[in-house]
Amino acid sequence: MLQYNDFSLSGRHCEPNGNAMDDAPLRPDPAQGNIDPDDALFKAIGKLIYSWGKLESQLEGKIGELRQIAGDVRLTGARTKPTIGKMLAELRAIISMRNRRDNQQLVEITQIECVIQKIDMFRMLVIQGFQSPADQSEAGGRSFLCRDAKNNVVCIALEELNEKVSRLDDCRKRLLAL
């Protein structure tokens, strides 16, 4: 019986209906002037993922430096990678021990943590729920569709994604400046 993806009966370079497959490139060639309209969207999603990873690694490095300054000799490379919430809690604990009377930095960490939690929820929506670029006629601009945990369709604009990335970079800079 012929399976859906079984091309053995129709030849090596044929589709199941017998038509010849073109050897068209999967991505448009920018040298020919063909630019994929979704490149900006994919670039912005990549920036979000990259910025999150940069936040995690630099925050972990900052905590390691603060531990070393405080005289803690624990190994920083554990078997499991701590979550961003655990790293912020540890940063808060180290700073509270360093400055027992000045709570201004603790207040700032709490404010940054609230922003980071919202961005984390947005990040997980984009990563786990991404479906496709939105139809330009119904969305009005460059945007994409995601499904949330309740399976509702959410349309996210490219501008909103870029704004979240810039807020995440701002939070990272503020945390490292503490």
What does this structure look like?
By secondary structure, this protein is mostly helical. The chain has 5 helices and 3 strands, in the order αααβαββα. It has a 3-stranded antiparallel sheet. A hairpin with a 5-residue loop joins β2 and β3. The termini are far apart.
Question: Could you outline the blueprint of secondary structure elements for this entry?
Answer:
Layout: H1 39-70, H2 84-98, H3 104-129, E1 130-133, H4 136-139, E2 143-147, E3 153-157, H5 158-177
Helix pairs in contact: 1-2, 1-5, 2-3, 3-5
Order of helices and strands: HHHEHEEH
State the strand order across the main sheet. 1-2-3
Which runs of at least 5 residues are low in confidence (pLDDT < 50)? Answer: 1-8
What percent of the residues sit in helical stretches (DSSP H or I)?
40-55%
What percentage of the residues does DSSP assign to strands (E)? Answer: 5-15%
Main sheet specs? 3 strands, antiparallel
Characteristic terms for this protein:
178 residues; mainly alpha; 3-stranded antiparallel sheet; 5 helices; 3 strands; 54% helix; disordered N terminus
Short description:
The chain has 178 residues and is mainly α. The chain has five helices and three strands; from the N terminus they run H-H-H-E-H-E-E-H. It is elongated and about 60 Å long.
